[in-house]
Amino acid sequence: MNNKIVDAFRKLIDINTPIIYINDYDFVRVDEIIRKVVGNKKVFEWNPVTGTTDFISKQSKGGFDSQTLEDFLETKYSDEVAIEKYLVLKEVHDFIDEPKVKALLALMSQRKLYDREYETTIIIVSSVINVPIEIEKYVSYLEIDFPDENEINRLIDEHIEVNFYDKTKFNDEDREKLMPSLKGMTAFEIDRMLDMAMSSNGSLSAEDTEMILRQKKQMVRKSGLLELIDTPESLDDIGGLNYLKGYLERKAKIVKHLSDAIKFGVTMPKGVFIVGMPGCGKSLCAKASASLFEAPLLKLDMGSMMGKYVGESEKNLRKAIRIAEAAAPCVLWIDEIEKAFSGVGGENSDVLTRMFGYFLSWMQDKKSSVYVIATANNADKLPPELKRKGRFDEIFCVNLPNKDERKAIFEVHLNKKLCPKENIDYLQLVNGTEGFNGADIESVVNETVENCFLNGKRALSTQNLLDMVKKTVCISMSCKKQINDMKNAFSESCFKDATTGEVTNIRV
Ligand code: ATP
Q1: Ligand 1 pocket residue status of 430, Cβ below 6 Å
Q2: Which residues contact 277 (CB under 8 A, 6 or more apart)?
Q3: pLDDT tens sequence across 319-343
Q4: Most buried of 7, 172, 285, 481 (most Cβ within 10 A)?
Q5: Are residues 110 and 170 in the same domain?
Q6: C-alpha torsion sign, points 276, 281, 284, 289
Q7: Are residues 185 and 57 in the same domain?
Q8: Where in the sequence is the domain holding 173, given as residue range(s)?
Q9: How far apart, in whole angstroms, are the C-alpha atoms of residue 218 and residue 307?
């Protein structure tokens, strides 16, 4: 068991915290931690299924004892006041809003704070965070970290032993290969993965990595906060943006040899912020970086962070960051960051401001090998703190592609097509596509190939492509106003040009 959690838990008890909130569903592991922390002190449990329950045997103590949460708290409020005891309330998020329950929790908390004789600590263990505003000030959250490498190794060993699996068949190389796929999950989830791996073919080996990653992907998605993205894209799939590509290559070299780099004095790369025109390859860069860093890509969905309960949104952000940290080395992609943080400082933005503060300080102090790639179309509404040095290593601006880049993008997409092609005159294509973004060019290629196929053409020609270019309503035509607004907004800030590396304003 991770001693850091036990120490943090003890500290909360030592400083007389009235209510400790543990947002977790791995009740077996949390019970183990509680037992380790409170030793042989009295522990009473209540949960919605068995009501008042013996903490050790898990037998319901119904009958003479109370069954509702309200009754349970009422009994314990005045019961054996001077004896140190712990009330473990499990999955109470649906019951905690009842007026009497809230009042009892508040009364017990106040008594704990002001009456030296009163020794009752409440521990809430719930898979959902719901803290009514009346008791918010008495609550401290305890984060249960994901198992570290030592603990994961212990879980693997346990599985090998329980399943009588021949230890010699699972060598260090298997262990090393399996390790990254098991990071960033709870002990409960790791247990399930190992069970699945063992039951599928009766053995455990590096070959199970693929199955574990498949399952993990679903699990991460179910958390609703992060998505594990497949990253078949490579830098070769990006036309243009040469300076940014070179920059990412350098950072990848550092991350892949992190310990040597740090020993040499290199600072741990924090991440990059890519702002600019829609459809110009920002997401593509995030995806290609993960392949480049040879690390998983986790996409953070900022919209889903905002919960309906007090404290839930902040907790969600912490949880997402915790998952990313546990899964490190990884690339954490925050798409459309402006949608999340552009309201900071506005009316009713307390939660957002706190989340933003937490994110900034995490970025500032980050020591883990989580490389953050934030992407945004519009940076003018973002709080300036985010754009200051120290948070991201660099801010890049992606413009509409210039001539050379348009040629490169045509090449990328045409090379992917298997159909026969006549000699392509790129100069004509490039001259005809001023104001097109990468997505427009991709669509021209796709539509042309489709047309050629449907019309029974033997090979694709420059003229076919030019005909499609003429029919295409490109970004500069369809989003004239937005592009102008963006241009004005960008003219107030200076970013590094993703194509040339020069410090420049956006060019349209
Ligand atoms: P948005 O801001 O709208 O999310 P984005 O800048 O993230 O846009 P992408 O999602 O990376 O844009 O690109 C959209 C599509 O256009 C992709 O399918 C990609 O293949 C193509 N594309 C865009 N830019 C390039 C590029 N520089 N090279 C090759 N393909 C590109």
Answers
A1: no
A2: 377, 398, 399, 400, 437, 475, 483, 486, 506, 508
A3: 888 888 877 778 999 988 887 777 7
A4: 285
A5: no
A6: negative
A7: no
A8: 149-219
A9: 21
Decide if 481 is inside a domain.
no
- Structural domains in the chain (count): 4
For the Cβ of 104 lying below 6 angstroms from any atom of ligand 1, the answer is: no
| Domain co-membership, 166 together with 22 | no
Residues 393 and 407 in one domain: no
Mark whether 46 and 121 lie in a shared domain: yes
Q: Is 231 in the pocket of ligand 1 (CB under 6 A)?
A: no
C-alpha distances out from residue 488 to 34, 376, 438, 483, 506, Å: 57, 16, 22, 9, 9
Compute and round to an integer the Cα radius of gyration of the chain: 28
pLDDT of residue 439: 96
* Predicted local distance difference test score (pLDDT) of residue 508: 41
Residue type, 250: R
Q: What's the average pLDDT block by block, 10 residues per block, for the chain (508 residues)?
A: 83 94 87 91 91 84 71 85 87 94 95 89 91 92 84 87 74 81 83 84 78 79 79 91 96 87 88 91 94 89 67 78 81 86 72 83 83 86 74 90 96 94 92 94 96 92 94 85 72 78 63
Please check whether residue 495 lies inside any domain of the structure: no
Q: In this structure, are 411 and 426 located in the same domain?
A: yes
Question: Which residue has the CA at smallest separation from atom 2 of ligand 1?
Answer: 278
Residues in the chain: 508
CA of 265 to the centre of ligand 1 (A): 36
Residue 79 within any structural domain of the chain: yes
Residue nearest atom 1 of ligand 1, based on CA coordinates: 278
pLDDT at residue 489, rounded to an integer: 64
Statement to judge: residues 123 and 163 lie in one domain: no
Q: What is the pTM of this model?
A: 0.73
CA 438 to ligand 1 centroid distance, Å: 5
One-letter amino acid for residue 76 of the chain:
K
CATH number at residue 439: 1.10.8.60
The predicted structure's pLDDT at residue 62: 66
Nearest residue by C-alpha to atom 29 in ligand 1 = 238
Is position 303 within any domain? yes
409 CB within 6 A, ligand 1: yes
